[in-house]
Structure formats: C-alpha cells, structure tokens
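Dear Dr. V.,

Thank you for agreeing to look over these. As mentioned in my earlier message, I'm a first-year student in the group and I'm still getting used to reading structure tokens, so any feedback on how I've presented them would be very welcome. I ran two proteins. I've put each sequence directly above its structure. The first is here:
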Amino acid sequence: MIGQLKGTLLDKRPPRLLLDVGGVGYEVEAPMTVFYDLPETGGELLLHTHFVVREDAQLLFGFASRYERELFRSLIKVNGVGPKMALAILSGIEADRLAACIRDQDTTSLVKVPGIGKKTAERLVIEMSDRLDKLDGAPAALPGRVALDAAPDARADALAALEALGYRNKEAAAAVARAAEQGDDSSEELIRRALRTLAR
C-alpha cells in the first residue's frame, strides 16, 4: 500500500499529475481541489494517497489531506460509487462541505454536485452518516489560492479534464466555453468555473 508521496511536481494535466519521488515518476489522479493549490512545476509536493489494484489497471489517487483521502475511501464503499465517480464528486465540492451536506442530510445541495443524482445523494446520506465521525484527520483549512499563469492550451486542458471526470464532450465543451467568457485564465480556473456551471 502506498499511503503517502513526497517529491517534486514534474507535470500537471488535470486530473493527473506526475510526481518525482527519488527518481521514480508516479502518475497520480487527484480531485480538482488539489489542482487549485498545486505549487509551480518543480516545486515540492506532499500527497496522501490511495492505491487501487484491479485486473486491468493499477491506479494511484492523491489528496491534499488525510481527511480528503478518508472521505474518498468512504465514498467508494457506497453502493454504485467507484473511484472515478468519487474523484468527480470531490472535484465538485470541497471535503468539509461534502461532509456537512451528509451530516445535515442536505440531498438538495448534493444533487447539484457533478456526478451525484437523487438516488446517489440519498445513498450517500444513508451509508456515510455513521462513518463521518470515524474518519481519520480533520478538515484542513484551505490555503490561499495562488493564481497560475494561463497556458495557451488552457481550454483544451480543461476540456480533457472534464471528459476524464466523466462528462460528455458536448456538455464539457459548452461549460468550458461559458467559463472562458469570463477570461482565459489557467486551466485550473477554467475547470473550477465550468464545474460550477455544470452543477447548476
């Protein structure tokens, strides 16, 4: 089990990033909440990880805090929620807010999160309510967000990230286009605005 990685950030292409740990490059999938606060390429990064082994793949998921990782682990235990859907859920809502919605049985807010329908929201509330207090770690205070330089292909990166999270090309492209109307920022900012649009 790989539980933590600390190394140099080599590349970031949502939802995947590449981390150099002692000369070994680890490809890690992470929710967009992680990408919003990544250091510049070449900077040091610590991730709390969850390793998934399947017959057809070995996948490594990374999170900014132990609490976020524990929420992910709790999510994938819910009937009908796999790692990809759990990643999409944590990309659409911050960990502490997701926990609050579950505690308050706020299914109305949950269904606005990308990837959560009415039945899934009800299952999350029923199956996760008792688990929340047992999760390791506490909600981390969100650090100040640092604006990242916009890349020329920020829109393409944003579109690719949304498709990787499970959105159809047409709806993802429309959301990115609407997000870009507010200005061509970094791909991370475009994805954040597009996810808000898709959640409406």
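The second protein is here, in the same arrangement:
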Amino acid sequence: MTEHGRIVAEVSAVIGEARPTLARAATGVRALLDAEAWREFTGPGGELVEHGDLVEFITADPPRGLGVTPGLVRALVADDLDVAAQLDQALLAATPAPPPQSEEGETPEAAHVPAPETPALRRLREDAPALHSKVVAGELSTNAAMVQAGFRPRTISVPVSRPENAAKALRRNLSREELVELVTLLSEDL
C-alpha cells in the first residue's frame, strides 16, 4: 500500500505542475482562434505556412502545425469552458473541400460535413467533455456518445417484414435473460 501512496503522490504532483501549463495552453488556443493565426503564419526560416482547415493545422507536424489530434487540443483546454466552446465551434465550422464529382454529377462517397452544435452536442460539451471531444474529432457519432454517456437509451432497428429476421436482430442485441423476458411478455397477450 505504501507503493500505491507513492504512485498517487507522484501523479498528483505531475498534475499540480501541469496546471499552469494547461492554463497557458488555453490562453494560447484562445489567441490562436481569435486571430485565426493558424490560417497563415511565418514559420522558422521565414517560410510562409498556410492552412485552409483547422484540423489540417492541428494535425500537421511542427513547425507547420501542432502535430496532435483535435481531441488532445480539446482535452488541453477542457477546464476553460469558454475556450473549449470556441474550439468546438471552430472545429464544427471546418468543412472539408467537396469531393470531386463524376461526369454524371455524383460524388464518389458522401463528404462528412459537421453539423452546427445541436442540443445533444451542447449537453455532451457540458456534461461529458471527453465524449464531446471524440465527437468533434470525428472519432464517435453524436448518438453513440449520448448512449455511452447514459443520456439516451441504446436502440436498434428490427426488420419486421420477416419474423426470422426480427428474431436474428433481437438475438444479436439482447441477452438471454432479456430474450426470455421478451418471450414471456409477448406470450401474455396471445
């Protein structure tokens, strides 16, 4: 147990040392976003660096960018709710270039265009910031994050055109106990 106490003390000390750095990171991210400094800047050696996309800037290797994931930047500023919200809005506003169209005017695959902040995203930002970061970074859907956070029940689609397909879907998604309860409930009304 003494070893555990030492580990806890070390982690606590590292977190204590990191707090001022995290505050500086939030201040820096606010300035970066306010001035849109990420769009165009002079790098080492006088090189002009330009980015049309915030995510591209964040993920680009230094000195052309930050060399991290959007989720990490979100985690670094999470304690400053104003900066976190400003970053989230900037990330949500970043839209990729439309995919090329074929001669028939069709796109090869649907482009991911982030939606504006919804009530679900706002709730995640306020009550489950780690999951919100994953949504903003494109690592998780809003619905999956809401389910993981316990804000929405997990639901499935059940095909009803053929009973055997409905049974397969339910077997894949329900435990044995849940299936037994379902059979009992269904047989009560017959």
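From my reading of the second output: Residues 107-115 have pLDDT under 50 and may be disordered. The two ends are 60 Å apart (CA to CA). Does that match how you would interpret it?

Kind regards,
E.
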